[in-house]
Amino acid sequence: GLGTCGMTAILTDNGPVVSGSTAKLTWSCGVAASSKITNASGATPNGTVSPPAGGTISTSALMTDTTYTLTCTDFGGKTDTDTTTVRVDKKLVINSCTPSVTSVPANTNMTWSANVSGGSGSYGYTWASADGTPAGATSASYVTKYASGGAKTATLKVIDLGDGQSASTNCTGD
Q1: Angle at 165 between CA 164 and CA 171, to 5 degrees
Q2: How far is residue 8's CA from residue 75's CA, in Å, rounded to a whole number?
Q3: Are 157 and 168 in contact (CB under 8 A)?
Q4: What is the pTM of this model?
């Protein structure tokens, strides 16, 4: 918001961050005698911030979404505030990637299926199998035909489209 004497409190963050990570808070107060950043419970990430006109600090490890408030105080004692909420995404995890059959006969389709959790909930998938046709796919499931029967493998890479996390795994079907 707008303060007095050219003082404007502006607080921004680099979120979203992954659960257990730190966030960087950047603030600007303009002409200020003091500035302080606090979370909803009144705790400060690093006490009174210095220099009072602006800078960047890191938070402690965050496990849940956290709102911070910047309070700038000018030399006449008037204040201005701004808030930001750092969004915290859970770590992206590939819980499983499983085949539709345990042993695939020759010239038969096999469907690979992924179970993913965490992150922002919006995912991109990249499947690959060297001896399957088609050789890859980009959805949560992957249908491919194998010319020869037996044990098969596929690789899966998942990218969180909301926060950029990624995870990979090798999948086997015997």
Answers
A1: 125
A2: 14
A3: yes
A4: 0.66
Encoding tokens for residue 118?
């965490």
From the list 65, 57, 77, the residue with the least C-alpha distance to 19 is: 65
C-alpha 92/C-alpha 21 separation (Å) is 13
Reported as a single tens digit per residue, the pLDDT across 23-75 is 888 888 877 788 888 888 888 775 556 667 778 878 888 888 889 888 888 88
Token code pair at residue 79: 């204040």
For residues 156 and 126, the answer to whether their CB atoms sit within 8 Å is yes
The torsion defined by the Cα of 155, 158, 164 and 166, in degrees rounded to 10, comes to -50
Supply the DSSP string of 30-86, one letter for each residue. Answer: SS-SEEEEEETTS--SSSB-SSTTEEEEE----SS-EEEEEEEE-TTS-EEEEEEEE
Q: Please, are residues 96 and 114 in contact by the beta-carbon 8 Å criterion?
A: yes
Distance CA 82, CA 139 (A): 41
